Amino acid sequence: MFRNRLAKVFRHISKIAKRQNISCYRTYDYDLPEFPFCIEIYDDKIYLAEYKKRFEMADKEHGEWLDECLKIISEITQISSEKIYARQRQRKEGREGQYEKLDSKEEFFAVHEQGLKFNVNLTDYLDSGLFLDHRITRNMVREEAKGKNMLNLFCYTGSFSVYAVDGGAASITSVDLSKTYLNWAEGNFALNGFDDKNKYHFVHADVKQYLDELPDNFFDIVVMDSPTFSNSKRMKDFLDIQRDHVELLNKTLRCMKSEAVMYFSNNLRSFQLDADNIKASSIKDITKATTPFDFQGKLFRWCYKMVK
């Protein structure tokens, strides 16, 4: 059953990826309840996340079952089992666990996306360092960035910022609460040969507090790919995106020039945008337009384009 399903979806999705010259993509995501995997291709490697189920097999039985699944995955994708990175994780809404370090192998390698390079890590963290679901959104930012001052909030490993540099942004400010991810972001800049420290700034800060420090009417383009929830000890107050999004968005709009554009996204399935209280001149739901081919029907995140 798993072999047949994986063969079908991989044949279809890999053809589209090849046609679009994409080498990092998702090929399977819990398609069958008996096989609770997320399978992503990163160039010549595979990230395999096994979601924990309520009723689990005994260790020996699970090990034998997983070994058989790995053989099938290797056979169908033609990627050696030695290049399959498997881990087990809880299925969560949002990205609240992304800062949790799980291992200490520090195994990074560079992958390619739309003419740019990014360091990914398939062993140490819950997420790889490159959110594949925002491939289209990143390119939209690149196309609009020329000559613009950009602000990237909750920047994670800086992929949106790298795209903006490639698009000719005049300056980029990338903000995150994690020094680990800011260092990772700087590494992604260096990987692509972007090293002008007068133009590219990496800020270690709590976004909710940092927004109060920014000048009015400065930024031309903003990305806010926010976590659903965060209660880090490093924060003055916890973040709940449903509760806090109006305040966050209005604080950010204050820092933006007239006609400036903001891309706002989050992964809360039940999220409801309080558009009436957001001080934007226009708000457009671009969730469907920014959903890549490999996430069709399986992506539970929201994305909006707002103009001041």
Task: Give the SSE layout.
Blueprint: H1 2-19, E1 24-29, E2 37-42, E3 45-51, H2 59-77, E4 84-89, E5 108-113, E6 116-121, H3 135-144, E7 149-153, H4 159-166, E8 171-176, H5 179-191, E9 200-204, H6 207-210, E10 219-225, E11 229-230, E12 239-240, H7 241-254, E13 256-266, E14 282-285, E15 302-307
Parallel strand pairs: 3-4, 7-8, 7-10, 8-9, 10-13
Antiparallel strand pairs: 1-2, 2-3, 5-6, 11-12, 13-15, 14-15
Helix pairs in contact: 1-2, 3-4
List keywords for this structure.
Transcription Regulator spoIIAA, four-stranded mixed beta sheet, seven-stranded mixed beta sheet, 308 residues
In words, what does this structure look like?
Helices cover 28% and strands 28% of the residues. It is an alpha/beta fold and 308 residues long. The protein has 2 domains: 2-90, Transcription Regulator spoIIAA (2-Layer Sandwich), CATH 3.30.750; 111-307, Vaccinia Virus protein VP39 (Rossmann fold, 3-Layer(aba) Sandwich), CATH 3.40.50. The relative contact order is 0.11. Mean pLDDT is 92; it is low at 91-102.
Summarize the entry for a quick read:
With 308 residues, this protein is of the alpha/beta class. It is built from 7 helices and 15 strands. It has 2 domains: 89 residues, Transcription Regulator spoIIAA; 197 residues, 3-Layer(aba) Sandwich (Rossmann fold), CATH 3.40.50.150.
Give me the number of helical elements: 7
CATH class label of the largest domain? Alpha Beta
- What would the average pLDDT be, to the nearest integer? 92
CATH topology of the largest domain: Rossmann fold
Unreliable residue stretches: 91-102
Radius of gyration: 20 Å
